[in-house]
Write a structure and sequence with these properties.
heterodimer; A: mainly alpha; Serine Threonine Protein Phosphatase 5, Tetratricopeptide repeat; 21 helices; elongated; B: alpha+beta; Alpha-Beta Plaits; four-stranded antiparallel beta sheet; 3 helices; flat
Amino acid sequence: MGRVGVTGETVARVAERTARASYGRLVALLAAPAGDLQLAEDTLAHAFEQALTTWPRDGVPDNPESWLLTVARNRQRDLWKSAAHRRNRSLEAATDLGADVVESLHDLDPDRIPDRRLALLFVCAHPAIAAGVRTPLMLQAVLGFDAAQIARAFAVPAGAMSQRLVRAKRRIRDAKIPFVVPGRQAMPERLPSVLEAVYGCYALAFSERGEGASVAGEARYLAVTIARLLGDEPEAWALAALLTLASARATTSGDGYLPLEDQDPDEWDRRLIAEGESYLRRAERPGRAPGRFQLEAAIQAVHCDRARSGATDWDTLCTLYTALVAIAPSLGSRVARAAVVGRTRSPETGLSLLDALPVERERFQPYHAARGDLLARLGRHQDAVAAYARASTLSTDPAVRTFLERRAEELSR
Amino acid sequence: MRYMLVFHYGEASDESIGAEAISAGMRAMASYAATLEQAGILVSGQVLQPSTSSTTLTLVDGEPRIQDGPFADTKEQLGGVIVIDVPDLDAALEWARQAPPLSWGTVEIRPGAVHIEGGTWVASA
């Protein structure tokens, strides 16, 4: 095997690149036989540690992924065979099974290492796993974020988050949630929770700016991976399109927050826009009603199209939001629709839609921000200032808060 | 892997829901048992008498105390269990979905840890 002598720094970079590309693949492979995610993560962490000590000395192996898999697998076997584990028959059976799965991978071309990440994603978003822990579990098991990072992104104490993750992993092992991709029949029931959890990864990026950028990038990567692995699921492609198009605009705002219509389209990433649009085309199914993510991606595409046309097609946005509210009547989609109707019809019509929302609206920041905008358009500046002030107190993002306060201040003059 | 399907439901009687409903339930349970048997996954099953016939034993200051009634005084009571042996949770869920008690209560799916075989405890996985 030809090995290249490299400096410690390069080794660290190879390990990091391998980790990013392979972490989820390796965890999925190692965890599948016995359903033991914790053990898979621990042994893989051990293998990465080994890599950082031996690669600088012996060179980076030709196939880092299979090197890591072998080291982790050997460690797993040692643990399984240890006295503590030998007493348990189920784990012994799992050892044989695990050996079967990984033995055949020895010295394989990395492209031929089977990808079981999809199965792992379906485990993380299994209906038997509490909805609130599905996204954190994906961030950890598939993307390799540590519990502390995830805890920060969810604004939860680190100890509490790591406890939730440990409990979920124990549950997967003990209840024996299978590492399988559901068949066609169960797919419509299972896929939405997977896509929802991936979308959750992305949504985090907005709540936490520090960790946000990396989480958003990884969520997009995951969405595209899922769409490719599934091949022919329109909503999976639509989610990939949605996150790609949103990412195309996310690069612009820098530190501050700029609402969509104040953003300069020249700063948007044209390459990502083109990529997102190509995913959206793959989601199209003529004659079939569009799904929720397809509508949301189409809305993003309309906004991105301003980079080409120079204007926003508000009428199309209005149609898309009306369709979205019909199939996914969340508070968020209803507020967004009211804002667009306020633009295309009249501010009064938009306001009456906002007034019709259920009481939960009072604690929903976008409701107050949209209301402030429509009131300002009507010249009711005093009411608009009050609405913006309310929106600002509800916002957790300092950049958004600054923006809302500035709007209120401009209107008070 | 062994799973126990645990049925909880409000207890019904001839008087409360009618003899016809009771016998329809029994017919459904009979055919469910036959289906599980035919699939080769049935380990055992037990439907219980109403909880009013239950007697509970606890230790109070080291002395056994006999009490009239079930351990927990709730509206829904443990009504019966079925143990099946299937590969994983998805398979267990699929069978639980077909359990007739789902129509009149809840079905809890609980993985087995150990069970007795020939007088010794063995892993249920």
